[in-house]
Structure formats: C-alpha cells, structure tokens
Design brief:
The chain is α+β, with helices and mostly antiparallel strands and 305 residues long. It has helices at residues 9-14, 21-29, 42-48, 56-85, 109-113, 186-195, 215-218, 269-296; strands at residues 2-5, 31-34, 90-97, 137-142, 153-164, 174-179, 183-184, 203-209, 223-229, 233-235, 238-240, 245-256. Strand 10 and strand 11 (238-240) form a beta hairpin. Helix 4 (56-85) packs antiparallel against helix 8.
Length: 305
C-alpha cells in the first residue's frame, strides 16, 4: 500500500517548526491511504483518524492576538467614556458678602447694621431713611470670576439676600435695576417681589434668572448691577415716606457649555467599537482556520474537528 503526505515543505517552513517534534506527528497522522487507482480515501481516513491541527506555538499566538484585541477594545471604550464626561456644562460662581442670616429670619435694624462679618459696603449696611429719604440705591460689582468668558453662556442667576425693602406697592417699588448701566432688568426683580413681597425687618432670599440679553455683558468678565427703590416703605405704625433696604450677600452664577465638538460619525460610538471588536475576532478566527486547511492540503469541510 502507498501513502501520500498532504503537508508540503512549504507549510513546513511557514510555521517555522523544522525542529518541532509535534509537527512530525502532524505529518505522520496526516498521511492518507491511497488505493490502487491512486485516489486518496481522505474522507474515510479523516472520519476515523483524529488529526492534530494546532501545536502549542499556534495556540499561544492565537491567544495573544485575542488578548491584544480585547485590551485595545477596553481602552477605546474607556477613552470614549472619558471624552463624553468632559463635555459637561461648567458653572462659574462668585459670591460677594456673607450670608449672616437665613431666609425669612427677622433681624432688627440695629443688629443688621452691626455687620458681624465686616463685609465691605454696600453689604450689611442700612441704605436709605424711611422718614427723610431720599430714594435708596446702590451698586454691586462682580469682577473676580476668571476674566472674559469664551464658552457660550446658557443661563445665569443672581441671588441676593435682601433685608427689609417692604413696600405697600411691590409692583412699582423698583425704580431701576440695570446691568452695566445699559441693560434694564427691573422687570425680573419686580416679578420676584410681587410673587414674594419683602417684609419689614426680615431678610428674604431672591434668586433672579437673568435673561439672555445679559449674557454678552456677563461674558466680559466684569458685571455691575445698579439697584434703586422708590415710593413708600412700611414702618411699625404703617406706611413711611421712603423705603429702607439692605443687602446681606449677592451671588452670581454663570453656566456655560463646552467648546463645540465634531458631529457623530457613521458607525462611531460604543456600538461601532463593539462591531469592530467582533469583526476583528472573526477575522482572526477565519485566518487561523484557513492556515490549518492549507497545512492539511484538503478541503475546508474535511479540516474540521
């Protein structure tokens, strides 16, 4: 009987196993019986005879490729998550004065004027005189929140701790309320006072949502608010000739969005990474299967275990 060996020296050199005894076993087990007509009975022989398709070197190489692919996929996913988290909005805040009293706390005029935190004017100072007048007013300047703002501003708020400022007519007591002397925002404060009127000798917190017309002025890095009241105030015995008020603190908060980023790419993101990883694994698996078939020199369906 004759035998034909389907693993040629070309494949012998491909795997670099000239001195590998395991490869000699592959050659011996890959021998196929040839009948008298010279046709190999490969199908019957392979069905009965198990063939060693991989050696230790082959298996180590495959594991190394799969491990490297998985590590790269995890690194890409982590980088994508970190990039996404960096796109969150930023808040710029500056507080002037000190919140010495709580919202709704009753405070005597003498106590408020003590200025326990030694804050600079106009904070913790009585502004105006209910009997002699004139109409009280003051200014607040924010200039220490990091200079000019380059990122787009999406919203901004001004919170103030307003002392007294009680009036019989809250809808008309605001004489002026401006930003940088040109932007009129009196309607914002008037709406807040109508919704929650100020009370005599009581501190009240007001959070004012600044309109978008103020964003360009806020972005310059320096913002001055001018506030003035008019009309009658409220005293112990009833209405007074003028209004009296004070400021305990003021906090400016500006919310910005990050710089624009390129739009999404077809197949990008987490789904694209997953598809890419699975595609790479399938490609590696098919490549190793094809190399095994070439080593045996037979059809793909005969090379399966």
């Amino acid at each position: 009987m004759q035998y034909a060996i389907f693993a040629s020296s070309r494949h012998y050199r491909r795997f670099g196993l000239e001195r590998n005894i395991d490869f000699m076993l592959v050659l011996l087990l890959g021998a196929i019986r040839v009948n008298a007509l010279g046709r190999p009975k490969a199908k019957h022989i392979l069905a009965r005879q198990p063939i060693l398709l991989e050696n230790n070197t082959h298996r180590r190489l495959r594991r190394r490729v799969v491990r490297t692919t998985l590590i790269a996929a995890v690194a890409l996913i982590v980088a994508s998550a970190l990039t996404a988290s960096s796109s969150q909005a930023n808040t710029i805040t500056q507080m002037l004065g000190t919140a010495n009293y709580t919202n709704g706390q009753s405070v005597g005029t003498a106590t408020f004027a003590v200025n326990p935190s030694s804050d600079p004017a106009p904070f913790d100072t009585l502004i105006g005189n209910k009997s002699a007048g004139p109409n009280p007013s003051t200014t607040i300047t924010f200039g220490g929140y990091g200079g000019a703002i380059a990122a787009p501003i999406t919203s901004a708020t001004l919170e103030i701790g307003l002392y007294d400022a009680a009036s019989p007519t809250p809808s008309t007591e605001v004489q002026f309320f401006t930003l940088n002397s040109t932007i009129d925002i009196a309607a914002v404060l008037t709406a807040a006072l109508v919704a929650d009127p100020a009370t005599r000798a009581v501190e009240t917190y007001y959070t004012l949502n600044l309109p978008s017309t103020t964003f360009s002025a806020l972005a310059t890095g320096s913002s001055t608010f001018a506030l003035g009241f008019q009309g009658q105030g409220v005293g112990v015995l009833g209405p007074t000739n003028f209004t009296l008020f004070g400021l305990d603190f003021a906090t400016l908060s500006i919310i910005t969005t990050p710089a624009p980023v390129p739009g999404p790419v077809m197949g990008g993101g987490l789904p694209g990474l997953i598809v890419c990883c699975f595609g790479t694994l399938i490609f590696v698996k098919r490549g190793f299967r094809r190399s095994r078939v070439d080593a045996l020199g037979c059809e793909p369906e005969l090379s399966r275990i």
